[in-house]
Specification:
The strands form two sheets. Strands 1, 2, 4, 5, 7, 8, 11 and 14 form an eight-stranded antiparallel sheet that branches. Strands 3, 6, 9, 10, 12 and 13 form a six-stranded antiparallel sheet that branches. The protein contains five helices and 14 strands. The radius of gyration is 17 Å and the shape is globular.
């Protein structure tokens, strides 16, 4: 069923390996986080306008081509559940990252507490979103920053199957490093896979401690078919 949260998959993940991958690459894979049925149910709800607070056509804002919709509160059960279950696994990593990068902000243990902080600062609009790409659509490299309170990780779940439902449309990650040449990664995803990625920067060790490498993400041009993704962002927007 759609609203059966995959808590067992989240709990069974090797979170030390996730932290290691995030520290090294700025992203970490959580394979088969959602079932095919859950993916199809979420993607199939794209046309249900009552679920969403707004629709963004990327071309209007020079974001690329394609569109996405932000969910409204209350979030669908599985979306809220993913937020609630992933956050406490990521918050300790986020606090270690902020300590390394000498960023003052720290994150509470639960997402409910963090959401209260966002809402008290005027960041009250939910940010989880559903994205749809069709032939020739793409997304420019960007960061999902919505206010003063930013949780340093987000998750993206692929809801369609590459090679069957679409071709092209690879997830792209780019890093600019002030002390090394920049680099780019293509993250291979299958239907139901999730990737956790750094929202804006990651700590990089140097002889004098840590410095910040800047990260952005985007989607390459879709050659054919249709591609949906679920975005789980933990901070809300102004």
């Amino acid at each position: 069923m759609l609203h059966d949260l995959p808590e067992t998959r989240i709990a069974a993940a090797d979170w030390q390996a996730v932290e290691d991958d995030l520290g090294r690459d700025g992203h970490a894979l959580l394979p088969a986080l959602l079932t095919q049925a859950q993916c199809e149910e979420l993607a199939g709800g794209y046309g249900e306008e009552a679920r969403f607070r707004s629709r963004i056509v990327m071309e209007r804002y020079a974001f690329g081509r394609g569109e996405y919709k932000y969910f409204s509160y209350p979030l669908p059960g599985i979306v809220e559940g993913l937020r609630q279950s992933l956050y406490p696994r990521l918050a300790p990593i986020a606090n270690r990252w902020h300590a390394a990068m000498r960023i003052e902000a720290r994150f509470p243990a639960t997402h409910d507490e963090f959401r209260e902080i966002c809402h008290a600062a005027g960041q009250r609009r939910p940010t989880p979103l559903l994205l749809r790409y069709q032939a020739d659509d793409y997304c420019c490299l960007h960061q999902d920053l919505y206010g003063d309170h930013v949780f340093p990780f987000q998750a993206i779940v692929l809801l369609d199957q590459p090679g069957r439902d679409f071709e092209g449309g690879e997830l792209l990650l780019a890093e600019s490093n002030p002390k090394q040449p920049g680099r780019a990664d293509v993250v291979p995803l299958r239907q139901g896979d999730a990737v956790v990625l750094a929202v804006n920067h990651r700590p990089v060790r140097s002889a004098r401690g840590y410095y910040r490498a800047n990260l952005r993400h985007g989607v390459s041009r879709l050659r054919k078919g249709e591609r949906h993704t679920l975005g789980i962002i933990f901070h809300d927007a102004r």
